[in-house]
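Appendix C: a fully annotated inverse folding record. The material below is reproduced so that readers can follow the format used throughout the book. The structure is listed first as tokens, followed by the designed sequence.
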């Protein structure tokens, strides 16, 4: 598959400006090496050599993101870093890891313009039949923000919005001001949305955003390698899904057209993770 690398490369160096200034010495060396490999890939006339250098840059950026560099175990959680990681993966013609990186950038910063732009471009490289998430709106931004909060923070926020709604209703009754009742609708709706998220987490419902990162994953109708295929074609790398259940080495995923299927856990990685440990077969960071 041939990707339009110049479209992505044109904004690569801009992304570097947003990286943390407080990197450790070892992390700075890894970053410098990643940038060097990326630039060398851009200048390489040989396709195989170019792909190899982009792949090295991708691995180095991933090393920073997961905290695996020598001398530091602290991951660098930065949206610009994930954009650069995605750009390197695109240059290496690895669409799945690229889409995953852009999704992680948007998880950290839902308003990151470069990540959103590059993600939309990457999605156009998928086959037309692959279901895609709807373009971000108000609710999408809301839930992306909510996903970053802990259960305790969600409970506190839900309690505050409930209190505000009740106070406004009480004010409408006490002073007979319909405007207070009308204003109570907004915190009331937010409270209901937050309550749904809290209950979902408390009951252990997964429903986590994830991306297929292997070249092809056969979607099965059950959690068994011998089960019949659920879809006519394997899911290509870069397919975005939501994990709704895990069972042993399998994950039940929901495509964005509503269909469910079973995939090996090793075939998908959670958006809310930070590296290899985010595969659904291991504990994911959140």
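Designed amino acids, in order:
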């Amino acid at each position: 598959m041939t990707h339009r690398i110049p479209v992505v490369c044109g904004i690569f160096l801009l992304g570097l400006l947003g990286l943390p200034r407080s990197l450790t010495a070892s992390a700075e060396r890894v970053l410098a090496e990643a940038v060097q490999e990326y630039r060398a890939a851009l200048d390489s006339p040989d396709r195989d050599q170019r792909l190899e250098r982009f792949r090295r840059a991708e691995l180095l950026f991933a090393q920073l993101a997961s905290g695996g560099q020598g001398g530091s175990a602290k991951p660098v959680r930065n949206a610009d870093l994930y954009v650069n990681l995605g750009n390197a993966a695109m240059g290496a013609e690895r669409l799945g890891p690229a889409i995953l990186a852009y999704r992680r950038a948007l998880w950290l910063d839902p308003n990151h313009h470069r990540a959103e732009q590059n993600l939309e471009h990457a999605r156009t490289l998928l086959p037309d039949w692959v279901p895609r998430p709807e373009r971000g709106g108000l609710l999408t931004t809301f839930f992306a923000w909510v996903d970053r909060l802990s259960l305790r923070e969600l409970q506190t926020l839900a309690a505050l919005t409930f209190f505000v709604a009740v106070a406004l209703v009480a004010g409408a009754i006490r002073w007979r001001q319909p405007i207070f009742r009308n204003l109570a609708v907004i915190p009331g709706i937010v409270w209901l949305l937050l309550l749904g998220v809290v209950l979902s987490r408390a009951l252990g419902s997964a429903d986590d955003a994830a991306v297929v990162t292997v070249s092809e994953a056969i979607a099965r109708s059950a959690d068994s390698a011998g089960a019949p295929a659920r879809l006519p074609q394997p899911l290509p790398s870069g397919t975005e899904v939501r994990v709704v259940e895990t069972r042993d080495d399998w994950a039940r995923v929901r495509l964005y057209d509503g269909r469910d299927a079973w995939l090996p856990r090793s075939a998908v990685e959670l958006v809310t993770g930070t590296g290899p440990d985010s595969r659904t077969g291991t504990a994911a960071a959140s």
